[in-house]
Amino acid sequence: MSDDFKGKGGSPWGTPPGGGGNGSGRGPTPPDIDAIIREIQKIINRFLPGGSSSGGKPIGLILIILTFVWLASGLYRVLPDEQGVVLRFGKFIKTTQPGLNYHIPFPVESVQTPKVTKVNRMDIGFRSERDSGFSTGGGVADVPQESLMLTGDENIVNIDFSVFWVIKDAGKFLFQIQDPEGTVKAAAETAMREVVAKSRIQQILTEGRAKIENETQEIIQSILDEYNSGIQVTQVQTQKADPPDQVIDAFRDVQAARADMERSKNEAEAYANDVIPRARGEAAKILQAAEAYKQKVVAASEGEASRFISIYNEYSKAKEVTQERMYLETMEKVLADIDKVIIEKNAGSGVVPYLPLPELGKKKVKN
Q1: Is the peptide bond before 107 cis (omega within 30 degrees of 0)?
Q2: Which of 74, 134, 301, 321 is the most buried (most CB within 10 A)?
């Protein structure tokens, strides 16, 4: 430090010798602020062009420029796929939308701009070679401690799935949870185990995957919302759902036997559905024919009985006439389909006693 700055008497603040004592009964003399500022300006001017002749104008200009640059450093741009998170002395203040924004310059406020439209992926039950750090030959490494789950019918299923998520609130995402990826992974595994524990293995392996994915997504979202994580789950996608590798062959045999049983059962039901209606139709047909025959026989019997009674009544009134009538009716029935020739025994001269009725019938048909 220069001697001019120290002042007279060797004191840096210009205190006269002996001024620090108590002989006068007063304390030390306070520093002259104006003198200190002038001394500082003289020292700075020695290092600037023009020396001390330019006075304080260069210092003021530099300070104005530095102040302007400092204030301009508060401008920042948020891209369309980002959200701005403003921190004041490290404390979250607000979030800003895409575009040109402003904050109090450093060190008062700072800004973070996480990407909120990027779709992040979390794999549960397996890892790719890039994520696992070692090669498995097939490109994917299984993680049994994550993928093996107990089903509702007390079977074990090996299920791999992926969770896709985005940031919906950057402020909550950065400051409400310490490990976002770990939180998503734990919530996803918990939700899938809960859903699988309520489902049967046959449903998981076949047509029930879509329902399981939807239920899992809802549970994950509810957990993350409860944590105020600022994360939005967009999709849960099942990659694989199989029995454990140790029993997969036996399980497939069981499934094949079950499929054969279902097929045989369906064929038997189809045969029964074809045969039973036809048998019922035949039975109904026989019953209806028997009923008709019964009614026919009963009606015929009743008619014969009524006819017999009628004939008997007439016979009791006129026996000879009734006998003649019965005889003629009987002969009419007996001789209806027999060729007949009529011969008159008492025919006189000029009358042909022979009448060939069949021959007359044949000639009539020819004509």
Answers
A1: yes
A2: 74
